[in-house]
Amino acid sequence: xxxxxxxxxxxxxxxxxxxxxxxxxxxxxxxxxxxxxxxxxxxxxxxxxxxxxxxxxxxxxxxxxxxxxxxxxxxxxxxxxxxxxxxxxxxxxxxxxxxxxxxxxxxxxxxxxxxxxxxxxxxxxxxxxxxxxxxxxxxxxxxxxxxxxxxxxxxxxxxxxxxxxxx
Length: 167
Ligand SMILES: O=P(O)(O)OC[C@H]1O[C@H](OP(=O)(O)OP(=O)(O)O)[C@H](O)[C@@H]1O
Ligand code: HPA
What we know:
The protein is an alpha/beta fold. The chain has helices at about 5-20, 35-45, 95-105; strands at about 25-35, 50-60, 70-75, 85-95, 115-120, 135-140, 145, 160-165.
């Protein structure tokens, strides 16, 4: 669906935009495991202001194609986010349930600011609205894999975004 070249080009643009928007500040990336790790690493390399990074593991999909709606926190952050400029990094926003749950929880820890950044957004699937500051690509309602996105844990390593065919 999206070539390796196009994904990398867009991530470079997002990194430049973020560096400009946060000029003179430090940014603290929170990557949501596991999917967003590939995107977060590439994005961090394209940001020219000081960057720190932490990880959190939240799962709602298990091994299926549908969100269970139950967001489970399997691993919390290592560091406090008090007074930090936080950017939560996701690989995809689908129903919006994961970030809808996560955002207020992180905001209650009083960061200086908290915004959301996602490589992909599937607007047709949205069930709850979440304000997203940076979106790489809007994609149609198909189950996508690659660049960190999995189907039953596979295909995360593809360097492009593809569509998982029905079995
Ligand atoms: O907007 P939503 O419908 O909530 O979907 C988005 C969430 O689903 C995926 O995570 P998943 O639970 O598949 O975990 P993974 O990143 O480990 O694959 C993705 O990384 C987001 O966290
Ligand atoms: O389209 C998708 N692909 C992989 N993981 C996902 N999690 C939500 N939507 C998707």
